[in-house]
Write a structure and sequence with these properties.
Elements lengths: L8 H4 L10 H8 L13 H5 L5 E4 L14 E12 L10 E6 L4 E6 L4 H7 L5 E11 L2 E5 L3 E3 L1 H6 L3 E4 L8 H12 L11 H7 L4 H9 L12 H27 L10 H9 L6 H15 L5 E6 L6 H13 L3 E5 L3 H17 L4 E4 L5 H13 L4 E4 L13 E7 L6 H8 L6 E6 L5 H8 L3 E5 L10 E6 L3 H13 L3 E5 L7 H19 L3 E4 L5 H13 L4 E4 L12 E6 L7 H8 L10 E6 L5 H12 L3 H12 L7 H4 L9 H21 L6 H12 L4 H7 L2
Parallel strand pairs: 4-6, 9-14, 9-15, 10-12, 10-13, 11-12, 13-14, 16-21, 17-19, 17-20, 18-19, 20-21
Antiparallel strand pairs: 1-8, 2-3, 2-5, 3-4, 5-6, 5-7
Helix pairs in contact: 6-8, 8-9, 9-16, 9-24, 9-26, 10-12, 11-12, 12-13, 16-24, 20-22, 21-22
The structure holds adenosine-5'-diphosphate (ADP) and magnesium ion (MG).
Length: 704
């Protein structure tokens, strides 16, 4: 591990080194940062990069009557009355009435101590109250004001002050004080941004940018479009692009092995396919074969909407590897998916006389030993599996190609680890998440991209309808009719927070109620089931013994049952658009007309309504993804929270996409001049990588 330059030490010290911050406060601060592991201490750096969400401008003192709903204001008021909640009823808030010349206002406190409030705001005292105005039943109120100050204390406050997303129990004062103290500790760094760029954009240096962000001199210098914020967003994007560029460099430095193939096995497989390849599939296969035949190692991302037919493309790549004397491995994120791939590939591989195996956590004992032996001796040509494939015990005789399905669940580091199993192994990643261009650049800037734009011919559009959950009983009885007509349907249950256990309860309950309607025509799969039971349920559904599959989102990725034609999604408003699109893509795979019913709980907010409308209007995954990005921001599109891919703390791709391109070009260009980050700017850039947690990439400079 490269050692961290000492200039960074003050930023990486634990927050508890600040005066007045003890372990208790540190623990509360830890809750602000979802990306920290539980055992990780909050560092000075973390709170410095904790961005404010708003600003109190104390010059904004409109008076009660003129204060608008949602505005953050400061009011100079006289305290008139305390109204404690009735004894023993903690749910009723404590209220305080106050007035100024223009009107009256209520201050609202939940779970507060009356004694304390009385001391803070005695009757008839004059107080400066800052906070967000809410108009409630026509009357203005402020719930939990950000500040309550007397004349003297107000005189000492800065006129402009930032507000942060808070966590319960951490006082705004403590946080602000800690941030102010931390600002003092920022070292003078050498500039890491290109001189021409920083000159043109008129950005401040790193330290000044943080100072302006946390203690802006006026409200104009604040916000996501201010020069300071833009600079910090650029810093963050530059760090991520530089890290990706370093990974790319490292991967490319290892020469690939040319795999030209003979084409004879490919022929056999094409003859065995029950369909013709689409043009898009042919093109993607040609791109892959081109990469594999070249001396440069392949690192390619195959993006194709659900049902676009990626599996067969993966198979063709594996066949090409085999024709050139290499083994290949196909890795899936779940066991269910690994088995499905295996089932798809097996008969085709048989037709070409190729030996395929499956390796997951389930293969045990002698069976497992046989498979491992086959891999080591080279008698197994292709293997499908889960993470188990890349444990130490799996040794390949001559691994030439690794395919990763649903790639976004794997980080850059895993990508590297995998391809290190063979020598100069080619890498093909496949994803059904239609990822907007900006995000591809952010997360996969190190890869070449093939896009499958069209779907296999003859598919009918899916009819999508939105229905209120109030009509659940109607929907259930319609599903019953459809099933009696011989149709097959999925029923996806609501996502209750990010909690697999709750999800599973919801699915179980829905299963019970549908079971009483349909009997054993219903099957259930969810994430908490043992893999064998999951597979049994899937099989019953595939074969048609079960005709309704109640599921949590475990069916989201990859599941392929072409004769299923109805998709019901309960509480559709709780899902991300990309996810809805993925789920809907489970139907519409065969020749029959398919339907998707989005059940929602009304009343819907404006955004939710807009999102469901997009689902009704479009089946184009890329368009849906772009819209999702626009409506929600990038946070969850890739499921980054679950996957542990670090999201951005400062940059917001809906606002800062232009900076991303700039950062990418700058990183690439710089590495051509200084691939070892050895020049003065190169050294400064190393600091940047540490600051934004991309220092893993520095290790690559040394290794091979
Ligand atoms: P995905 O891209 O979602 O992984 P799959 O590879 O699972 O899609 O393919 C979806 C379905 O489409 C499968 O049943 C597959 O056999 C079928 N399929 C793939 N390519 C074609 C094609 N060119 N014509 C018709 N059906 C195809
Ligand atoms: Mg697939």
């Amino acid at each position: 591990m490269a050692t961290r330059p000492t200039i960074l030490d003050p930023l990486f010290s634990p927050i508890t080194t600040l005066n007045g911050v003890g372990p208790k406060v540190a623990l509360k601060m830890g809750k602000l940062f979802y990306f920290l592991k539980p055992e990780q201490d909050v560092r000075i750096l973390d709170i410095l990069l904790h961005m404010p969400i708003n600003l109190i401008d104390r010059r904004n003192q409109p008076g009660i009557a003129m204060a608008e709903d949602g505005q953050i204001v400061t009011l100079k008021v006289i305290i008139d009355e305390h109204r404690p909640p009735p004894r023993g009823n903690r749910r009723v808030p404590y209220k305080i009435a106050a007035h100024d010349e223009s009107g009256t206002i209520t201050l609202v406190f939940f779970h507060s101590h009356g004694d304390y409030l009385l001391k803070q705001m005695p009757l008839d005292s004059l107080r400066y109250i800052s906070g967000k105005i809410e108009i409630f039943d026509g009357f203005p109120q402020i719930t939990h004001p950000d500040h309550i100050l007397d004349e003297e204390a107000f005189g000492k406050m800065p006129l402009v002050e930032t507000i942060y997303p808070m966590t319960a129990g951490l006082s705004p004062k403590t946080l602000s004080k800690s941030i102010r103290a931390s600002l003092e500790l920022i070292p003078e760094f050498d500039e890491w941004i290109d001189k021409a760029i920083i000159g043109r954009e008129k950005w401040p240096d790193f330290k000044t940018a943080l100072e302006f962000t946390h203690t802006p001199p006026d409200s104009k210098s604040f916000g996501q479009e201010s020069p300071s914020w833009l600079r910090l967003a650029y810093d963050e994007l530059l760090a991520s692009q530089l890290a990706l560029a370093l990974v790319r460099e490292k991967v490319r430095r290892v020469k690939g092995i040319e795999k030209t193939g003979t084409g004879h096995l490919k022929r056999l497989i094409i003859d065995a396919l029950p369909f013709d390849l689409t043009c898009a599939q042919e093109r993607a296969i040609a791109e892959i074969e081109g990469d594999m035949a070249s001396k440069v190692r392949m690192v390619r991302l195959l993006q194709g909407d659900v049902g676009a037919g990626k599996t067969v493309i993966g198979l063709m790549a594996m066949v090409r590897a085999n024709e050139s004397g290499f083994q290949s491995a196909l890795m899936a994120p779940t066991e269910l998916l690994a088995r499905q791939h295996y089932k798809t590939i097996k008969p085709l591989a048989d037709a070409a006389g190729l030996n395929v195996a499956i390796l997951t956590g389930r293969e045990k004992g002698q069976e497992r030993r046989d498979i491992l032996e086959g891999l080591e001796e080279g008698t197994i040509h292709m293997v499908a599996g889960t993470h188990a494939l890349f444990q130490e015990s799996a040794i390949f005789k001559k691994l030439g190609l690794v395919i990763i399905d649903e790639q976004h669940r794997f980080g850059v580091q895993q990508r590297l680890a995998l391809s290190n199993k063979g020598q100069a192994t080619d890498l093909l990643a496949m994803t059904a998440t239609p990822i907007p261009r900006t995000l591809v650049m952010t997360y996969f800037g190190d890869m070449d991209v093939s896009r499958l734009a069209d779907k296999p011919k003859g598919r009918l559009p899916i009819e999508t309808r939105t229905i209120s959950l109030d009509r659940l009983a109607d929907v259930a009885s319609r599903i019953k009719d459809a099933i009696e007509d011989g149709k097959k349907a999925y029923w996806v249950c609501p996502l209750v927070e990010e909690n697999e256990e709750l999800n599973f309860t919801a699915a179980e309950e829905r299963f019970q109620s549908l079971y009483s309607l349909l009997g054993d025509k219903v099957a259930l799969v969810h994430g908490q089931m043992p893999a064998e039971e999951k597979e049994k349920a899937m099989q019953r559904f595939q074969k048609g013994d079960a005709r309704l599959l109640v599921a949590t989102t475990v069916i989201e990725v990859g599941v392929d049952v072409p004769d299923a034609t109805i998709m019901v999604i309960e509480h559709a408003e709780r899902f991300g658009l990309a996810q809805l699109h993925q789920l809907r893509g489970r139907v519409g795979r065969g020749q029959e007309q398919s339907t998707c019913l989005l059940l929602y709980k009304g009343p819907l907010g404006e955004t939710s309504r807009a999102r469901l409308q997009i689902m009704k209007d479009s089946e184009d995954g890329f368009l849906i993804a772009e819209e999702d990005l626009r409506l929600r921001g990038e946070g969850d599109l890739l499921g980054t929270k679950q996957s542990g891919i670090p999201g951005f703390k400062i940059a917001d791709l809906t606002l800062h996409a232009h900076l991303l391109e700039l950062a990418r070009d700058d990183a690439k260009l710089f590495l051509t001049k200084d691939p070892a980050l050895a020049s003065p700017r190169g050294k400064a850039l190393r600091n940047l990588l540490y600051i934004f947690d991309r220092a893993d990439a520095i290790r690559l400079l040394r290794a091979g």
